[in-house]
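Bit of a strange request maybe. I'm writing a small parser for structure token strings and I need a real example to test against, not something I typed by hand. Could someone generate the tokens for this chain?
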Amino acid sequence: MSSDRVAPWLVESRWPTVPIRLVARLGSGHTPSRSKPEYWENCTKPWITLADVWQIRSGQTTVITATKEKISPLGLANSSATLRPAGTVILSRTASVGFSAIMGHEMATSQDFVTWTCGPRLDSRYLLHTLRGMAPDLKRVATGSTHKTIYMPDIEQLRVPLPPVEEQRRIADFLDAETARIDQLVGRRNAQEVGLAERAYASVSEILLPGILSNPSGHWPWAWLPRAMDDRPLVRLGYVCRLQNGLTVDGKRDLSGDVLTRPYLRVANVQAGSVALDTVTEITVPRDIAARSTLRPGDVLMTEGGDLDKLGRGTVWQGELPECLHQNHVFALRPELDRLDGNYLALMTSTLHGRCYFESTGTKTTNLASTNSSKILSFPIPLPNVAAQRELAKQAQNALNAIEATSRLLKHQSAVLVERRQALITAAVTGQFDVSTASGRNVTDGVPAS
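Reply from user aminoacidic:
Good idea to test on real output. This should exercise your parser:
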């Protein structure tokens, strides 16, 4: 693999490019044998592994000073792991490819990283920015069926533009300041998106349940609900809705008779407020089983388990796939159409009331939670007439649509900022402009500051 194939933009450099290994000592890491308990006693040396990638994934952390795991002197002595000095630049090359940082003090790494300890002709911060400029290219050329990897012969071919060291430092100073400014703007956009999500939650809750945020009744057992309104009696969901269970996958099932092959909806396909259809599989089952687990347009889908904050979230099935079946861990709620609107029910599950009910009644483990058909059918739902339900659902959906439009704009602005950050790095390290006169220029033209 040639360097030109990895990062074609390097040919634009106004300085000569050289293999990084010629101006920095190239190294890698290792994992001491896990079968030797004595190698994992008295671990005192910081050891960078893939468990630490979260620290550098955003590209906003320059120096890494703490690691999740440590390595022992005995483990070091009996493996290929080597302590590298502070200032060494690291690059993840396996699974999570292309993330980089600088060691804050003496550390070792696992074999999932390569390291460069810079010589006198190469500044570590300048190398870091160059590697971050290459990150999208490194991800693109990584190979492997199970875990994407950049192999060492390819690492050895990576090149870096080589201006004088003082110029490298000026470029690094410029990029430190300018990328920090862009990162700050991206952070503001992310915070605004979080605020919009909270606004969506609050808007739907107040539209469907006026007073739930400002004036909860405090009455047991649903203390978070506002006082009941005369035209919205609180009704157990099972009185106005039927629950259909799905089918189980059974490799021993007899398929010698009258069978059908149909699309099959699993838990992974049911998202909060949407259905992911890009990974739907098919299943072959007897006709009578298919008849008992076929979805109908207007069904409200709920999953039996998942993340606690998503438990009980309803999604309306619009009949996107004809004759689609569903897994037994996906419940299909079928409203009585003259008494309950499916969109109203789905939106109600996303309100403060829905979240409080399912989170308080769910069975919780460390990271996940689950519910069951009995708890779902016991969900107390305010029930105005169907016409009023449809009007309320329309108002809530209009509010969500407006918020989603704003969210899309924020996501677009964030994407533009990320693109400009990348373009700025590649232009600076290849000398496309003079950073000594460029400081303070507006690299975020067209993107509001707040």
